[in-house]
Amino acid sequence: MAERMVGKQAPDFTMEAVLPDKSFGKVSLEDIKAQDKWTVLFFYPMDFTFVCPTEITAMSDRYDEFEDLDAEVIGVSTDTIHTHLAWINTDRTQNGLGELKYPLAADTNHQISKEYGVLIEEEGIALRGLFIINPEGELKYQTVFDNNIGRDVDETLRVLQALQTGGLCPANWRPGQATL
Known about the structure:
Layout: E1 14-18, E2 24-28, H1 29-34, E3 38-43, H2 52-61, H3 63-68, E4 71-77, H4 81-88, E5 104-106, H5 111-115, E6 119-120, E7 125-126, E8 128-133, E9 139-145, H6 153-165
Parallel strand pairs: 3-4, 4-5
Antiparallel strand pairs: 1-2, 1-5, 3-8, 6-7, 8-9
């Protein structure tokens, strides 16, 4: 039986990543918490696929809005940092990513994907999982769905803003509206 994650401490992580300047480095939940920031951690199945670049670039194109909300965005797949870099170095017109404003992390041993409950073990890839973690490390939101469907950046931003109100947000709540 699956175990509840929302409302508990998020599984800690440290992963190798390709950073926005295209250098190799590490990303960790501890470092983001130390900066007193929110974390938007999203998993995707594989580099050089068709749906993935649409959402990865959409998140990058809207990164300034996440930054304005004191949130760090990290994309994760089970591919290597070298494959990530090759994909970033491929132009968007060629199904590549081009410039990204946030890191792509490599979960090559599949441990983080497994801890977050998104690993398809028989394929060695992750489902499309999205997790929002508050600055104290508490997992506040998760969604996991089929790999054929890309995420909605507007909805991710809306949920992040709703969580940051600290209030009760009714159905269809939008930033600027009253909470309950």
